[in-house]
Write a structure and sequence with these properties.
7-stranded mixed beta sheet, 342 residues, Rossmann fold, 2 domains
Length: 342
Amino acid sequence: MVDYQAHKEFDSTLSEGSWNVKISGEQNNSAVSGKVLAEMKEYYEDIVVLTADVGWSTRLTDFEEKYPDSYYNLGISEQNMVTVAAGLSTTGKRPYISTFNSFLSLLSCEQIRTSVAYPKLPVRIIGTHSGMTFGFYGTSHHALEDLSILRAMANMTVVCPADAIQLESALKNTYDFPGPVFFRVGRGRDKQVYDTIDSSFELGKANVLTKGDDLTIVTNGLTLSAVVDAAEMLKRENIYIQVVDAHTIKPFDNQTIINSIKQTGKIMTVEEHSIIGGIGSCVAEVIADNNLNCNFIRHGIYDEYVLIGPPKALYNYYELDADGIVKRVKEFLKNPVNNKSF
């Protein structure tokens, strides 16, 4: 059982700005996929798009409006959607499938593994509303184990875009990539981090966003903007953080991690995911495989099912907002040897 006494009090009042229909319409990163795929379709006729009855929520309807004959709604049947996409890919089509991540990476795990990854088919899998961005919908809709599952599959490439610009770049730059690609996308509340498409994404190559000698923080996707904000806050206190955006989980950019560790000697991972099997495990593997001597801690979801509430309150509670990350960094720097991830 989870020892909730070990946590600070859950502040359910932090609901403003978490999510609602109006915010979704104004700031929906997942909407990028529909618009970008429609743009790509002008150049690549083989693109087809599949949804599991959530075309509006994932805004794939932007693609449907322009190319209704290349858009398929499989209904609330995610496993079937994956299998249909696999079949279409064997006929020369390039399927892009999208629905809520918990129903792709978790519910459809077997179909992804056996029908897509095993035969190395060029299916593009876009899992939206990842992490705990679904808030009130609860454990069935939270996706906090997806990276652990998908990065363990042979032939699977795993990408975690941080904002709309990086998602657009990732979609465009992986069209010709052989085999399946999984994109882990948020709910659309993510702040913009990148200014240009060209600077945001190169498959398998992490981005070093800020330089610093005190600590390296490796993160990606849903938590990148909070880490960038935290680094700026810490800079005002003369604490200089090297922020690494490891947007590609697989293949992982080992060399950038090695270089950063050699520079700072201390490394922290931050992720809206279980610290088991996600980006924390990726970095731990680099440290172990290369016999690196450094202080290391993982920060994320600590082997538990998260509480139910507004996303903004959940980020505050689990110290995955900028203030919480600042607090964790100071604790780690004060006592880097005895900090434990559990």
